[in-house]
């Protein structure tokens, strides 16, 4: 009816005006839109593609979709020609992994944006998502301690320089230094796990991810140091097991793996020396992997070993 037509005209005046003004763009007009977009992109390097398109809508009076299709059509016809800002299509998974690896290798976001023809915002968002997913997949375990909950914990535990230098006593650390390193090692993983619980691939910031990575990197430095400084212990235990016919290099290699496990599982809060706990772990692993050693381990007795066994988590 006439009343319905009038009602539609009243509520859709802008839509009707756009339809009335619609006409096909000539090739010259399309070229002009592309060139205008290039100029805007050069003059406004920080703006996104949508923001630039909004400016063109204001300047040309053309619909947003019209301008978007003109730009997309030009990019398809000239795939090898560098364009100021690429479309907002989703990243291909392989492309995103490549971008993430290059970023971790030291390439800047601005360099990656130019190389992959993407906005810096898109590169930043993609890297954050990929990095957060990778961090979420890691296993982070630590020995808890009440001192981690203190308001002064970060200052008290991380306040001093790391200083990974072995004590000159046959490579074995003095008890206070050993306790300090194991406390710091577990506290760093505690901090990383606490921060990780607050992020997801959809909301992670690069600043937070870098902080988590920093905690884990320092923890790994301590872990490697503790393994290296206790390698004489591994060699000593392996030497006592050569009667089984195993090669020294193989036994040392097996013992090093056991030592790494011992570092992760050692509960420094219970007051034992790490060398005592590590010796038990290495001997136990040798007994499991070298059947002839089972009887040897069974002959080891004493209250200390019983207590340590109870502490093995």
In short:
With 313 residues, the protein is mostly helical. The protein has helices at 2-11, 13-21, 27-43, 49-60, 64-77, 93-104, 109-116, 120-136, 153-158, 175-196, 206-229, 231-239, 248-265, 274-289, 294-298, 303-311. It starts with a helix and ends with a helix.
Order of helices and strands: HHHHHHHHHHHHHHHH
Radius of gyration: 32 Å
Structural class: mainly alpha
The pLDDT mean sits at 80
Number of strands: 0
Tell me what portion of residues adopts beta-strand conformation: under 5%
Number of helical regions: 16
Helix content: 55-70%
Give the N-terminus to C-terminus distance in angstroms. Answer: 81 Å
Largest sheet report: none
Poorly predicted segments: 293-313
- The 3D shape can be described as elongated
Q: Give the oligomeric state of the chains in this entry, treating copies of one chain as homo and distinct chains as hetero.
A: single chain
């Amino acid at each position: 009816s006439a009343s319905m037509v009038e009602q539609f005209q009243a509520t859709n005046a802008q839509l009707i005006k756009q339809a009335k003004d619609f006409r096909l763009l000539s090739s010259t007009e399309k070229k002009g839109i592309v060139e205008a977009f290039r100029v805007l992109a050069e003059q406004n390097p920080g703006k996104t593609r949508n923001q630039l398109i909004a400016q063109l809508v204001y300047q040309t009076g053309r619909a947003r979709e019209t301008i978007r299709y003109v730009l997309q059509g030009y990019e398809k016809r000239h795939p090898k020609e560098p364009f100021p800002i690429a479309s907002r299509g989703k990243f291909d998974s392989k492309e995103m992994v490549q971008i993430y690896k290059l970023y971790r290798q030291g390439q800047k976001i601005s360099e990656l944006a130019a190389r992959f023809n993407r906005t810096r915002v898109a590169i930043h968002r993609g890297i954050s998502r990929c990095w957060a997913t990778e961090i979420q997949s890691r296993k982070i375990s630590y020995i808890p301690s009440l001192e981690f909950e203190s308001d002064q914990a970060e200052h008290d535990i991380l306040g001093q320089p790391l200083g990974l230098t072995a004590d000159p006593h046959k490579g074995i650390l003095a008890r206070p230094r050993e306790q300090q390193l194991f406390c710091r090692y577990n506290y760093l993983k505690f901090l990383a796990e606490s921060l990780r619980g607050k992020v997801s691939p959809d909301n992670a910031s690069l600043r937070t991810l870098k902080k988590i990575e920093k905690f884990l990197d320092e923890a790994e430095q301590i872990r490697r140091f503790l393994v290296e400084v206790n390698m004489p212990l591994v060699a000593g235990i392996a030497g006592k097991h050569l009667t089984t016919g195993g090669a020294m290099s193989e036994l040392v290699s097996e013992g090093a793996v056991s030592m790494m496990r011992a570092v992760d599982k050692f509960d420094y809060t219970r007051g034992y020396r790490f060398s005592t706990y590590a010796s038990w772990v290495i001997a136990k692993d040798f007994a499991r992997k070298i059947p002839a050693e089972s009887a040897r381990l069974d002959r080891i007795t004493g209250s200390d070993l019983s207590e340590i066994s109870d502490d093995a988590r």
